[in-house]
């Protein structure tokens, strides 16, 4: 068995580390930040555990991954009923969509237009050439214009017609109105809209994975950003400042551009250029402390409209039954933006005020927050633009031929995947390291093909 370095202690890296250790390898994890969990971490604001945006564990999770999480969390993994709302044409519609609620609350003109679009679906083309065209083809122009179009513009910062169908395939599971109605009929029953959530926040999944890895003998080094990875002959030297480690192979879940910059020798010039062309959308996560025990009874509010900067608002307390402080609640607003745009650089006070104004405009109660904390996530959504699709092919080919350094995870592969997807990636990445300490590139290439069929759950 061999030595392996895992870069990044988000869920993908932690799962890779645990499984590689179980397979008999010596494993050291390097994590840049002071805690584990990456984008799926939890932290404390005003004495309450909160997440970096709304996170839930979806029932679509692969049974083997689900049983591992259940075994790690025990009774702390709670089964909850979703209770969200979407703001559509100034009305609130329950989310996930439910048939009765749609009939009652959707504006009549909107429902009539959707019904007409459904009737004429057979007349539409059999495939769309971009995100917008594909959504129009599948769900009709009304749903595309009123919901997916603005929401995509808000999340990705570009016109939906400039995005690829790969993104619509990965982000929108419904193939047509019939599927939406089928899902809405299922969600009409409480058992059709469940999700799983840990008592101490979503980060508890990563924390328990880290504990399990440590108890199996994995070394996790926090506050250790990797800045140089030198591949020479049969080994790799990892450098984080003055700390050096010689290892056999590297499983990296850090953002691909950071990996490419750290690698020596560098990837081929065309790969570096392709990676630099790929844009990712950032996000501000604003936590507002509200001096009342509950703000609303809903877990999340979705705002697809471009009239508000906030894309989603969640209330951590409503995701679980836990030991949260009784006299306050913490709201979490997600504001997509580009790194270094005006919003990115705004002060926490300005952002808190902006969220308050969004809530008023949406017709929600005033939050009257007493404190706000803002965290900046630089690369949340990979933007699959048509203009850079050939660059993604170049990157994909390169990722399929790892030489001692294999890249995985949401930012390592540049994908919009959920936690349950990246846990599968971690497990499969670990199993590509053979007993003689080499990477089985063919097995990894097959895994990458499987991962391309992942469909994101919201
Ligand atoms: C707003 C939002 C909502 C989401 N909602 C859901 C949901 O409801 N359900 C769900 O399942 N998933 C959800 N996700 C997705 C989920 O958060 C991700 O799938 C998951 O966190 C990806 O894990 P990862 O390990 O691949 O990457 P990350 O979580 O990004 O972890 C990468 C790690 O690498 C570290 N790192 C970076 N650079 C270096 C370096 N140079 N050296 C060492 N370490 C480094 C980082 O600090 C980080 O810890 C959501 C994500 C967001 C942003």
Q: Count all strands and give the number.
A: 20
| The CATH top-level class label of the largest domain | Alpha Beta
Radius of gyration: 22 Å
Fold-level CATH name of the largest domain: FAD/NAD(P)-binding domain
Shape: globular
Q: Any guess at the CATH architecture of the largest domain?
A: 3-Layer(bba) Sandwich
Unreliable parts: none
Structural class: alpha/beta
Question: How would you sum up this structure in a few lines?
Answer:
This protein is an alpha/beta fold and 458 residues long. It folds into three domains: 179 residues, FAD/NAD(P)-binding domain (3-Layer(bba) Sandwich), CATH 3.50.50; 106 residues, protoporphyrinogen ix oxidase, domain 3 (Orthogonal Bundle); 103 residues, Polyamine Oxidase, Chain A, domain 2. The chain starts with a strand and ends in a 7-residue tail after the last helix.
List keywords for this structure.
458 residues, FAD/NAD(P)-binding domain, protoporphyrinogen ix oxidase, domain 3, Polyamine Oxidase, Chain A, domain 2, 3 domains, five-stranded parallel sheet, 36% helix, binds flavin-adenine dinucleotide
């Amino acid at each position: 068995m061999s030595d392996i370095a895992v870069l990044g202690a988000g869920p993908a890296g932690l799962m890779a580390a645990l499984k590689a250790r179980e397979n008999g390898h010596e494993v050291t994890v390097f994590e840049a930040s002071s805690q584990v969990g990456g984008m799926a971490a939890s932290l404390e604001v005003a004495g309450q555990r909160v997440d970096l945006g709304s996170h839930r564990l979806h029932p679509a999770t692969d049974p083997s991954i689900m049983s591992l999480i259940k075994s790690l969390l025990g009774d702390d993994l709670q089964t909850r009923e979703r209770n969200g709302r979407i703001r559509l044409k100034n009305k609130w519609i329950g989310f996930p969509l439910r048939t009765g609620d749609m009939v009652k609350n959707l504006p009549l003109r909107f429902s009539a237009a959707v019904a007409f679009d459904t009737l004429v679906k057979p007349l539409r083309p059999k495939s769309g050439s971009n995100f917008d065209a594909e959504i129009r083809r599948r769900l009709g122009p009304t749903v595309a214009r009123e919901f997916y179009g603005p929401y995509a513009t808000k999340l990705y910062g570009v016109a939906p017609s400039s995005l690829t169908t790969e993104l619509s395939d990965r982000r929108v599971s419904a193939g047509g109105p019939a599927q939406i109605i089928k899902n809405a009929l299922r969600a009409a029953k409480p058992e059709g809209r469940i999700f799983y959530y840990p008592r101490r926040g979503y980060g508890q999944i990563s924390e328990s994975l880290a504990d399990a890895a440590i108890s199996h003998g994995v070394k996790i080094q926090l506050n250790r950003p990797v800045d140089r990875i030198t591949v020479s002959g049969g080994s790799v030297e990892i450098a984080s400042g003055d700390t050096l480690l010689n290892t056999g192979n590297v499983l990296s879940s850090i953002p691909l551009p950071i990996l490419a910059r750290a690698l020596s020798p560098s990837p081929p010039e065309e790969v570096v250029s392709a990676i630099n062309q790929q844009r990712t959308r950032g996000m501000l996560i604003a936590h507002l402390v509200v001096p009342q025990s509950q703000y609303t009874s809903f877990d999340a509010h979705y705002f697809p409209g471009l009239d508000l900067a906030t894309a989603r608002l969640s209330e951590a307390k409503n995701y679980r039954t836990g030991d949260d402080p009784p006299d306050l609640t913490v709201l979490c607003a997600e504001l997509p933006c580009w790194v270094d745009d005006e919003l990115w650089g705004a002060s926490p006070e300005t952002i808190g005020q902006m969220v308050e104004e969004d809530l008023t405009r949406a017709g929600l109660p005033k939050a009257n927050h007493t404190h706000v904390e803002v965290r900046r996530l630089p690369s949340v959504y990979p933007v699959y633009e048509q203009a850079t699709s050939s660059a993604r092919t170049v990157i994909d080919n390169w990722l399929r031929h790892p030489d001692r350094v294999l890249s995985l995870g949401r930012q390592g592969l540049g994908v919009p995947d959920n936690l349950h997807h990246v846990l599968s990636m971690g497990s499969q990445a670990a199993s590509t390291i053979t007993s003689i300490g080499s990477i089985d590139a063919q097995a990894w290439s097959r895994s990458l093909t499987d991962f391309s069929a992942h469909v994101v759950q919201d």
